[in-house]
Design goal:
Strand content: 15-25%
Number of helices: 24
Structural class: alpha/beta
Largest sheet: 8 strands, mixed
Shape: globular
CATH architecture of the domain at 17-183: 2-Layer Sandwich
CATH class of the domain at 17-183: Alpha Beta
């Protein structure tokens, strides 16, 4: 029997509004200290600075979403507006801080993200907001950090420079976030806008759209040109229809860099710095200014079946003049001959004088087996990602390359590096892993005694085995064989740190940084370590903090900051860094630290252990 009652449908759930937004998150660096020392003065300054921020946010068409305590969250429709606002905030507050005593200055940390948000009335939520807050925590006092999504939008729209800090793993976010630090040495000006028409007035009485140096600011000067011909080899463009052929074009680029780096008459920028330009339309003139070089080599590769087409052109970046351009249509089997021909053309064009040893080494093909070479290039691609999984994949690919060509020396060295990274990055605690790294390095050198990478690896293994004389000799030999190897200079600096020569180490590390201007994070760690050992604490502290910005979970940086603060009697800051040290290495003991750290001088080791003991390590 049918019911007479009508079926009443439930009302649909309220729709959730989502939108893409540019999000600015800010807080006060050292707020707890400021409040602890003088609550009234801190609140007064914060109130005044917050009014400045609100005015600027409104001027740049944003809105303040929330402002609890010392925090502030703002939303913008345009990511360019958010960036200009952030830079202007930092510049304005920097100016106002000059009127305050040094210990009462209030500096903001700002993070900017472009992401999806959930909207409820006037509030916004979601990962987009969370990422902005995490970026804020990574920023330095008075600085700005932005996500990769922001960088992709503003890179060519604002006259700013950026430092890539790597893909960072941040709290409560599933995937790593690409992070960039904004360099604030000069005023932000939209590209192509400066000095065009009448500048717009800002709410604080400063004209917008005109470049100027802020009070007490620094102007980034171009890097000086070396006293020898200098060159950067840009990543060759993969013109193949198959995007998976990227490894091949990248590998050819890397081989050309390696070949040129062996020449003492050239100054060659390292791979790490040039590969930041991969996939970007950039003018040689800009590359020359960024990296401090006179010449730029660029080109493309198209691989189809057994044929390969390579184009290459050498440009005088100072005057944007093409010195030569060439196209090679060859069989894949001739790939090494093409590389050799390109190298010789560069040598001739730049009038580089070769030593007898360099003449013999130039054009030496690493293998005659193209299949082995292909596996080697794929291994390099995996190895560059530096994760435990990709390190294992790289090892398997190098092993296959060696099976195909047992005389492939550089593949032996690369295989050794996979064992060393497994050990030094903590993926293996077994000292046998370090022994295997050394064994593969020795095999590589036995096959080719001129292989710089094999000598460098063997030297580093000797260092961690506390065989200091052998370590120094091998790393010095690697530099003699490859005088442009930035990693070699920094590795030698690292070795000198452990044997008690930090001042010389600083000189070598800075030389490596010049060869590799967009240097990896471990250069910063080695430099901070050297400053600590030299008791140059005013330089060590900000350097180690920069390392933590690049990698917040890098335990040694927290450990040595704890040590420095302890030695300076800054117990509260030492306790904070000590807590991070224990969080990252809860199982570490004094005995293990004593066994692992390769300091040659027992007094230096005791200095470090005493600080660790004071922090609570047992």
């Amino acid at each position: 029997m049918m019911s007479n009652e009508k079926n009443i449908a439930s009302p649909p759930p309220p729709s959730i509004e989502r939108r893409l937004a540019a999000l600015l998150s800010a807080d006060v660096a050292g707020y707890s200290r400021l409040m602890g020392e003088d609550e009234v003065a801190t609140i007064r300054t914060l109130t005044a600075y917050r009014e400045v921020m609100r005015a600027l946010i409104q001027h740049y068409r944003g809105r303040v979403v929330d402002a609890p305590g010392d925090n502030l969250l703002a939303e913008f429709v345009s990511v360019v507006d958010a960036m200009q606002c952030a830079v202007k905030i930092q510049q304005e507050l920097k100016t106002r801080n000059t009127d305050l005593p040094a210990d009462r200055r209030m500096e903001l940390r700002i993070g900017i993200n472009l992401g999806d948000v959930v909207v409820e009335r006037e509030e916004i939520y979601g990962d987009g907001v969370n990422i902005a807050a995490r970026l804020q925590a990574l920023a330095e006092a008075g600085g700005i950090c932005i996500s990769g999504t922001v960088y992709d939008q503003v890179e060519t729209k604002l006259a700013l420079t950026y430092e890539y800090l790597g893909a960072q793993t941040v709290k409560n976010i599933a995937k790593p976030v690409r992070v960039y630090r904004v360099r604030l040495e000069t005023e932000v000006v939209p590209v192509g806008v400066a000095l065009q028409g009448r500048p717009e007035s800002s709410p604080l009485g400063q004209p917008q759209g005109v470049a100027h140096t802020p009070p007490q600011g620094k102007v980034t000067l171009p890097l000086p040109l070396p006293d020898k011909p200098s060159i950067a080899v840009l990543p060759f463009t993969n013109m193949s229809s198959d995007p998976e052929q990227e490894y091949f074009s990248d590998g050819i680029t890397e081989d050309l860099i390696t070949d040129l780096s062996k020449l003492s008459g050239l100054f060659v920028i390292a791979r790490n710095s040039v590969f930041l330009y991969k996939g970007k339309a950039v003018k040689p003139e800009q590359v020359g200014q960024d990296l401090g070089v006179h010449y730029v080599l660029e080109g493309s590769i198209r691989k189809a079946g057994n044929r390969v087409r390579i184009t290459a052109q050498l440009v005088d970046a100072a005057i944007d003049y093409h010195l030569w351009a060439e196209r090679y249509d060859r069989d894949v089997q001739d790939i090494f001959a093409v590389q050799d021909e390109v190298t010789h053309k560069i040598v001739a064009a730049l009038e580089v004088k070769l030593t007898e040893g360099e003449q013999q080494r130039l054009g030496h093909a690493p293998t005659t087996n193209l299949e082995a070479y292909d596996y080697y290039l794929r291994g390099l691609e995996c190895q560059a990602l530096t994760t435990e999984e990709t390190n294992t994949q790289a090892r398997e690919l190098f092993e296959t390359a060696i099976q195909l060509d047992p005389l492939f020396a550089v593949a032996h060295a690369c295989l050794g590096w996979t064992y060393f990274e497994q050990w030094v990055l903590g993926w293996s605690q077994n000292t046998e892993t370090l022994e295997q790294a050394g064994a593969w390095a020795q095999q590589a050198i036995a096959l080719d005694e001129t292989l710089a990478d094999g000598h460098r690896l063997l030297g580093i293994v000797y260092l961690w085995k506390k065989q200091y004389d052998q370590a120094i000799a091998e790393v010095e030999q690697s530099i003699a064989l490859n005088p442009n190897c930035a990693d070699g200079y920094v590795a030698l600096g690292d070795a000198l740190n452990w044997i008690g020569k930090p001042e010389k180490a600083i000189e070598l590390i800075e030389k490596g940084m010049r060869l590799n201007p967009q240097y990896p994070a471990w250069y910063i760690w080695d430099l901070g370590h050297a400053y600590y050992l030299a008791r140059r604490y005013e330089e060590a502290i900000p350097t180690l903090k920069r390392m933590i910005i690049r990698n917040p979970d890098f335990m040694p940086a927290h450990a040595y900051l704890c040590t420095i603060y302890s030695e300076l009697g800054r117990e509260e800051e030492a306790a904070v860094e000590g807590a991070e040290f224990f969080r990252l290495s809860p199982q570490l003991s004094l005995a293990e630290l004593r066994q692992r750290l390769p300091y040659k001088d027992p007094a230096v080791l005791e200095r470090v252990l005493n600080a660790a003991r004071k922090a609570g390590l047992k």
